Amino acid sequence: MLSGGRCCVSFFFLVVWWVNGCFGGDPYVFFDWTVSYITTSPLGVNQKVIGINGQFPGPILNVTTNWNVVINVKNDLDEPILLTWNGIQNRKNSWQDGVLGTNCPIPAGWNWTYQFQVKDQIGSFFYFPSLDFQRAAGGYGGIIINNRDVIPLPFAMPDADITIFISDWYTKSHKKLRKDVENGIDLGVPDGILINGFGPYRYDTASVPGGIAYQIINAEPGEPNKDTMGCIDCKGQIIIIQVFETCHT
Ligand SMILES: *[C@@H]1O[C@H](CO)[C@@H](O)[C@H](O)[C@H]1NC(C)=O
Ligand SMILES: *[C@@H]1O[C@H](CO)[C@@H](O)[C@H](O)[C@H]1NC(C)=O
Fold first, then answer.
1. CB under 8 Å, gap of 24 or more: what pairs does 222-229 form?
2. Where is the signal peptide (predicted)?
């Protein structure tokens, strides 16, 4: 019996070795991110903004399907953080999703290493801080998951891949906004709109009068070339957006 058991064990190892040897493991990529306040003035007022490695928006996580992503996040803020990876499926890894309930917040001054595989996914996603209104102060950035060469895209390769973040922005700090919400105070209209961290794209009732025509765009995942062109008019500049993939959460 004993020698039969041993035989099974070595056979098992042989199979594992063969599978690894033939197909290789999926690549690992490592990142070190420090989350800290930086001072910028996107709307002309100096503000404490949440930067990642000193950048706002944070660095783009540019990876390829099936890669294993390891991100050591150091929290240099004065309060706990969690970063969540919006749209990343985290199959069998839900505790890496960076939301309260599945993850403990990273205390101020501490670090935590997220590790997840972007398994069988392609497209554009984003990460952001999931706690305490911090997202209103930044801490977000883009995620690009490129296709593997063995799975070609069903359309021509775009000439460029440009990430555009359009966000409401308040000149009040996220802590003040948080306090207002806790006290039942209406946040009111945001002070402006930022595009990729830059302003001012202010609400301007003079240049955008009431009754202006608008269009509703439905972007459906899986229909990359159909009905997914949109236009946004920001201070006379037209931005064309093509949605290649979106996610429903
Ligand atoms: C992402 O990385 C790929 C190589 O893996 C590169 O070809 C591509 O230009 C990068 N995209 C961006 C937006 O940095
Ligand atoms: C914190 O960072 C250090 C230095 O990079 C690293 O060795 C350690 O594993 C990290 N700890 C966690 C919990 O991620």
1. 224/153, 224/154, 224/155, 225/155
2. 1-24
Choose one of 30, 35, 71, 72 to mutate for the ligand 2 pocket test, by most ligand atoms within 8 angstroms of C-beta: 72
- Which atom of ligand 2 lies at the shortest distance from residue 110's CA? 1
Which residues, in sequence order, are bridge partners of residue 112? 73
Distances (CA, A) of 207 to 76, 168, 204, 234, 236: 41, 18, 6, 10, 9
Q: How far apart are CA 192 and CA 238, in angstroms?
A: 18
pTM comes to 0.77
The structure tokens listed for 133 are 């209104």
Q: Which residue from 83, 111, 112, 114 has its CB within 8 A of the most atoms of ligand 2, so it is best to mutate?
A: 111
Phi, psi of 84 (to 5 degrees): -110, 150
Residue 198, pLDDT score? 85
Token pair, residue 47, equals 């503000």
Fold topology of 28-160? Immunoglobulin-like (2.60.40)
Q: What is the 3-state secondary structure (H, E, C) of 87-119?
A: CCCCCCCHHHCCCECCECCECCCCEEEEEEECC
* Residues in the chain where the model's pLDDT stays below 50: 1-23, 214-249
Q: Where are the domains of the chain?
A: 28-160, 169-243
DSSP string, 162-179: ----EEEE-SS-HHHHHH
Q: CA 116, 12, 90: angle at the middle one, nearest 5?
A: 15
> 25-62, pLDDT tens digit by residue?
999 999 999 999 999 988 888 999 999 999 999 999 99
